[in-house]
Specification:
Layout (H helix, E strand, L loop, with lengths): L1 H29 L3 H9 L1 H11 L3 H18 L7 H21 L8 H6 L7 H20 L1 H9 L1 H6 L4 H23 L4 H13 L5 H26 L3 H22 L1
Helix pairs in contact: 1-7, 1-10, 1-11, 1-12, 2-5, 2-11, 3-4, 3-5, 4-10, 7-10, 11-12, 11-13, 12-13
């Protein structure tokens, strides 16, 4: 019964993250922001350290730090370096700073492996509730702002002419990304968060004809990856987070094969 309980909690947590991350990941794929998502996830360790210092759940610290980082990264420009280069510098610098900050915490025992690669099998009922509250919030915002987001993604200047507040939509989008990163930390960890955004959406793109269809199929692909990853973790004693990511990559390969043959 204990095994059943923790498996059910792990499955619910994974499904909650997928229902938020995969549809949002469709916009990440369309906008070619995969590196932005990766850079954002690397700042999460600073949030973990902040959470411990403030005496709150690490997810709250991650949410605050990633939100601030998202706003800074989205508005950062450099005349001398490309955007991808600056994102790489910021991502690795933030990851290093987070590791140093955690190593300097006194009287706090931190399972660094769990934060880097996830520990979905240890989630509690409170964690599951937090994940689903966050996931429903992200999904509701995504549905509400779907048309403006889609318009800005297709052509930001044309969207502005049509009356869309482009800056507001961009800000909402990066804040939603930050929230998803905070939700996904315990499921797949800092180093693999971007995969929850990118891979299911990429798999769905191979089989979709409309943006709405891609968003729905991305969520389905995310759910299948979570289920398959947890099953592989139990059967083969693999770490659950990497197993979920490996399953999503396998789904992408299958989707790509089907698309090529069609």
């Amino acid at each position: 019964m204990i095994i059943d309980d923790f498996l059910i909690r792990a499955l619910l947590a994974g499904l909650g993250v997928s229902i938020a991350a995969a549809p949002l990941g469709a916009f990440v794929v369309w906008r070619r922001m995969a590196y932005f998502g990766g850079a954002l996830s690397h700042t999460a360790l600073l949030g973990v350290a902040l959470g411990f210092l403030a005496g709150v759940h690490p997810a709250f610290g991650v949410a605050v730090v990633t939100a601030v980082a998202a706003l800074l990264l989205s508005g950062f420009k450099s005349r001398h370096l490309g955007t991808d280069t600056m994102l790489g510098i910021i991502a690795h610098g933030a990851l290093a700073a987070g590791l140093i900050a955690i190593s300097m915490l006194e009287g706090v025992r931190v399972d660094l492996f769990a934060f880097l690669f996830g520990d979905i099998l240890s989630v509690g009922a409170t964690d599951v509730a937090m994940i689903w509250i966050g996931a429903i919030t992200v999904l509701a915002a995504l549905i509400y702002f779907w048309r403006p987001l889609l318009a800005v993604t297709v052509h930001s200047e044309l969207a502005h002419v049509e009356g869309v507040n482009v800056r507001r939509v961009e800000t909402i989008f990066v804040l939603l990304l930050a929230l998803v990163v905070a939700l996904a930390i315990q499921v797949v960890g800092v180093l693999l968060v971007a995969s929850m955004l990118i891979v299911p959406a990429a798999a769905a793109r191979e089989l979709s004809k409309t943006p709405e269809q891609m968003a729905v199929l991305a969520a389905v692909a995310g759910w299948l990856a979570v289920g398959a990853g947890l099953a592989a973790s139990m059967w083969f004693d693999w770490p659950a987070g990497p197993a979920i990511v490996a399953s999503s990559v396998a789904l992408y390969i299958c989707a790509r094969s089907v698309a090529v043959r069609a």
